[in-house]
Amino acid sequence: MLIDRTHRPWIVATLLLGAGAVGLYSFIDSRTPGEGLRGGDAVGLWYGVLGTALMVFVGLLSALRRVPGWWFIGSRRVWLRGHVWFGLLSGVLILCHSHFRMGGPLEFLLMLVLFAVIVSGIVLLGAQQVIPGLMRDQVDAEAPLSQVPELLSRMRGQADGVFAKALIEMVDAEARLRFQGIYLETIRPWLGEIVPVKSLLASAARSREFFSQAARLQGGAALAAFLESMETFCNERRQIVRQAKLQRLLHSWLLIHVPLSVMLLLLGLAHVISALYW
Q1: pTM of the model as a whole
Q2: Dist. CA 159–CA 176, nearest whole Å
Q3: What share of the chain is helix, strand, coil (3-state, %, to 5)?
């Protein structure tokens, strides 16, 4: 999700509501006798209820995919924006509810997880602003990861066809033998689904050097056409590798953010139960 001008109303509303919530809490707290407001007071409870309600709303984003597209629940775009900005606002309300203190062991753990969720969400949101731009700059033809195996299979089939044709047209026996070694030992493994970590073709500079040396073989026009096609295939494979790394980097934060969010909701529930019990 990219932060653009359409988020401006959400940003303004979040800032105003957050500042208003803190200002109102501080105003009431300053006029409360004794040690001021507490989480169990009426005001503190309302802040806790509203903050928890926002956290529940934010957590329901994952369930949105599993319900029909009812018009009255709003679009996924609206829920995504609410997930970001209401999530930040819920943190402000919970801080007010806690009187800006960590509390007991359960509350301390709850606040730590809350901060971790917010920080991981901010990092994830920042990555979403940067990584798509890197993909546009570094990957000419982006492909869905689910289609990569089929794409590579088709690429290897085309490469095998070009190799077989060039092999038939080559006359020099020694050149044919070296030509086979170049393709079968270096080029074809690079076009496989499992990326050879130490492949010469993993680096653009080393790849250009490799193909420059291969062009010195005595293969005539057949070899030149083959190497041109193979260099194109290898460059495309390198872009697919780069795309996969960027997408894994983007999605890896979900493996942190989502479990932390679930833990936050469970700890919040435990906090509510313990507060009602005691």
Answers
A1: 0.72
A2: 16
A3: 80, 0, 20
